[in-house]
Amino acid sequence: DAGVIQSPRHEVTEMGQEVTLRCKPISGHNSLFWYRQTMMRGLELLIYFNNNVPIDDSGMPEDRFSAKMPNASFSTLKIQPSEPRDSAVYFCASSLLRGDRETQYFGPGTRLLVL
Amino acid sequence: GENVEQHPSTLSVQEGDSAVIKCTYSDSASNYFPWYKQELGKRPQLIIDIRSNVGEKKDQRIAVTLNKTAKHFSLHITETQPEDSAVYFCAASMDNDMRFGAGTRLTVKP
After folding, report:
1. In chain A, fewer beta carbons within 10 Å around the N or the C end?
2. Peptide bond before A8: cis, by omega within 30 degrees of 0?
3. Is the pLDDT of residue A61 over 90?
């Protein structure tokens, strides 16, 4: 099992540019999560999907952030336009929500720097 | 929504000593409590978890206890080793809605 795959691993962009982060969950998992990690705010849940449907996006900072999950094996997190305060590590995680099983497995993260 | 508090924020112990990290949560409906270890520059990785119908769980040198009445849970690491040095996060979850504590930076001095 390849685990959760994220791309790119590093992204450096200029303020105002669009940024798209990608995630491939573990095959067979039915839930997907996007987190943001910074020194100041720790690990924040941005949004999560169950069976490709967004369930809770209350953690999305503002309208500049959007996330999609067009199918069970792919999700994107888009920031448009990007700002320096968006600089962080963005993690994607997936889990199999079934009965009492809901362990989340994290991807390697995307380190984003907005200049 | 759920709010998870974690203490201490930093912890330094001598190799071989025990380390204890404590967390409290606010939502009594939370029923799943995982602990993650994150090494510098790496992803969080699950080290142990506990469900609300269990009071204690142990895996070798790591144990977690849960007090549902008081809404707090703790991570215990015995016989600490330098490779235990990392940031540890607790979390509380119900139906996939997981909230993390702020993390504890554990340093084990050889």
Report:
1. N
2. yes
3. no
Q: How many interchain CB pairs under 8 A, A with B?
A: 49
Q: Which amino acid is at A104?
A: Q
DSSP character at residue B68: T
State the Cα–Cα distance between residues B16 and A30, nearest whole angstrom.
41
Q: CA of A4, closest CA in chain B: separation in Å?
A: 11
B64-87 pLDDT per residue, tens:
999 999 999 999 999 999 999 999
Taking 80 as the threshold, does the pLDDT of residue A97 lie above it?
A: no
Res A62: pLDDT: 85
Nearest to A109 by CA among B38, B97, B33, B85: B38
Q: What is the mean pLDDT of residues B44-62?
A: 92
Can you tell me the distance from the alpha carbon of A108 to that of A40, in angstroms, rounded to the nearest whole number?
20
pLDDT score of B19 more than 90 = yes
Give the C-alpha separation, B7 to B24, whole Å: 9
Is A33 an interface residue toward B (CB < 8 Å)? yes
CB-CB contact of B108 with B15 (8 Å): yes
With a CB cutoff of 8 Å and minimum separation 6, the contacts of B24 are: B4, B5, B70, B71, B72
